[in-house]
TrEMBL record:
InterPro entries attached to this UniProt entry: UCP028498 (IPR016888)
Pfam families reported in the protein's UniProt record: DUF2255 (PF10012)
Source organism of this protein record: Streptomyces tabacisoli
Source superkingdom: Bacteria
Taxonomic lineage of the native organism: Bacteria, Bacillati, Actinomycetota, Actinomycetes, Kitasatosporales
Protein name: DUF2255 family protein
Length: 123
């Protein structure tokens, strides 16, 4: 299994947004969507601001794969559901810390959408 390099992790962690392009199972070209990304140890995670209704999220779950660009890193990824409660507690804290300057209006929906947490696994 591939892993992120320390350089890739640091560059993506410093970036405000990540461009997500989930592979679409209907054969249509993927759309690029800017989303927030957080780091937990050697792993990167994303969530859907719109919860399970988010279009990019539905496409990501359907295919389980995508492409991301952030901080000069350009990678194909597997998108793996993160259901561990302890990990999600850390992800909640990471979102609150990294994006606190945007206020509760934006951060609270991401914390509330923990059932959409996806781990980005390089391929």
């Amino acid at each position: 299994m591939a892993t992120w390099t320390n350089n890739e992790l640091a560059r993506i962690e410093r970036a405000d947004e990540l461009q997500m392009e989930p592979v679409r199972v209907d054969g249509m070209p993927p759309s690029s969507v800017p989303i927030w990304v957080v780091r937990d140890g050697d792993d990167l995670y994303v969530r859907s601001f719109r919860g399970q209704d988010g279009g990019w999220y539905r496409a990501a779950v359907a295919s389980g794969t995508g492409h991301v660009r952030s901080g000069g890193v350009d990678k194909d990824v597997a998108l793996v559901a993160a259901t561990d409660g302890v990990v999600n507690d850390r992800i909640d804290a990471a979102y609150r810390t990294k994006y606190s300057r945007y206020g509760a209006r934006y951060v609270d929906p991401l914390v509330a959408s923990r059932d959409t947490t996806l781990k980005l696994v390089p391929r």
